[in-house]
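Job type: complex structure
Entries:
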Amino acid sequence: MTFLLRRAVFYLVTLWAAITANFLLPRLLPGDPVQAMITKLGGRLNSDAMASLYILFGLDDNKSIWQQYVDYWGSLLQGDLGLSFTFFPTPVADVLSQSLPWTLGLVGVTTVIAFVLGTLLGVYAGWKRGSWMDNLIPMTTFLSSIPYFWLGLIAISLFSVTWPLFPASGGYAPGLVPEFSGEFIGSVLEHAVLPGITIVISSVAGWILGMRNMMVTVTAEDYVLVARAKGLTQKRIMFAYAARNAVLPSISGFALSLGFIVGGALLVEMVFSYPGLGYVLFQGIGAKDYPLMQGVFLVITLAVLVANLLADIGYLLLDPRTRREG
Amino acid sequence: MSPVLEIRDLSVDYGKLRAVHNVSLTLNKGEVLGLAGESGSGKSTLAYAATRLLQPPGHVPSGEVFFKGKDLLSLSDKELQVLRWSEISIVFQGAMNALNPVISVATQLDDVLRTHRPQMKRPERTARARELLGLVGIPADRLGAYPHQLSGGMRQRVMIAMALALEPEIVIMDEPTTALDVVVQRQILGQMMRLRETLGFSVIFITHDISLLVEFSDRIAIMYGGRVVEEAPAGEIYRAAKHPYSKGLLGSFPALRGPRRELKGIPGSPPDLRSMPSGCPFHPRCPSAMDVCGERVPSLENVEETRRVACWLEGVHV
């Protein structure tokens, strides 16, 4: 119990530090969003409008940084992340809540698929070490070493230009209204194929390699020999005695990669113009959109923290040695 | 006495290197057969090869291992799996790693029962697991414990309980007490021997600690460089070892019983598999080596009714 309490305190402190850094970092960036806005609107603003923009964005000079920090916390706790400059005047919270499901749906699901697939392949490759399965490793490693944007562009040029099998960009066919209908879901799935497969291809090798090597290490342990001497079935030995122990390092890697789903989505969503958080962040950075960037970073921070918490819990469940009694 | 396990002319290779040379050994019913020798003498390799647990690159180029009229080396995988643990179980060296650290003791015991006794229901299996822990003197409430929550001695006891779960014919003990202190060693071995009297299994006891063998086994086979160099009843080996290596091995351990004597080591170190000396593998370290020792390997011959020795000092070679 004290262990969980200590972890909870740790997470709260980390959360506070992350949010504070999130507040400070954009203010350290050179440049000014109002200037960016003026440039965007082609200078068609008079000085009154500029002054009200400064006030609207909370950039009026007479507020001390400390006051800004207190205000920031106040709005944050009310779920108010300010207005986005890029999608002015949409609130950042709305932009985030619209784009987050796309990222979670695409990158989240493919990350899980890549992990499960890679780990299973790794289990077999490690168990049947020296068989044809070993050829899988250089092949998948080669594929994963291709820079992602290049892999994505090749996929687009092959499968939506040369052979137009799948759409090249977007989250669903233009003209469709997002709703719970067969047509819309079909369109979403069709649009997810290329980005999804390229994500799996580029990330599966790491899981295979890590799992295979751990399997090889664990298979040499005494308890696997004991399991064989006990006359257990091959399947039972492979999963309950070898893979069960070998998967532990992969679990923490997996939790971390869950945390990086949001941040890692940037390249994928740029290449495929996918309406997720990464694409929003990309647009936000281009427009010096502080509130939006802060919002996205906040989501990334929360995702990493939640993923770490999941890793902690997963380890507690899977490895009794990490449980502390008392 | 009827033999339960007969190893005939068994050789074991690791890749191209021969680790065990044409060893023949017989384990009789109810007997404790001790296998002694330094590290690398092939004693564990022999036991793993006989039970087909050898990992590649280890393999068996020739030999037979007879158990109940069947050659273990030519059984199908399925037959072998059924026979494992229910007929031949193994207590592994250093119980530190022989128990899976992330699975509870209960599950590891249960695994054996569930695989080999599919007709047993869960409550029966739990009852049996508790009974087994009781047999080795562990409170039944430790059943749910994980290996890291137990002491080294308790882990070894759990291992023994597991080995006895299916009441096997043969228990192979491979350095079962090497990682434990002397007091716990004797407690555990004493307990094992009492269980042997009540349950009636036979034991192959592998250790480098010949003083333990003298005390706990009926017959001792001493291995050196992958060969059995001497085999005789434990008392005879202790009183009058014939092979110079046996003498050296006995002289290098303090006897826990019997008259006090001076300790002596064996000069040199065990031979390297990659560069085995010609002739008798022991001759470079042997205090009474002769010319012939470096040229030809002495075969294991009966020098007395119950004693076999492989040494040119024994006059039976022609």
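Summary: The first strand of chain B starts at residue 3 and ends at 14. The domain at 30-44+76-87+168-279 of chain B is CATH 3.40.50.300 (Rossmann fold).
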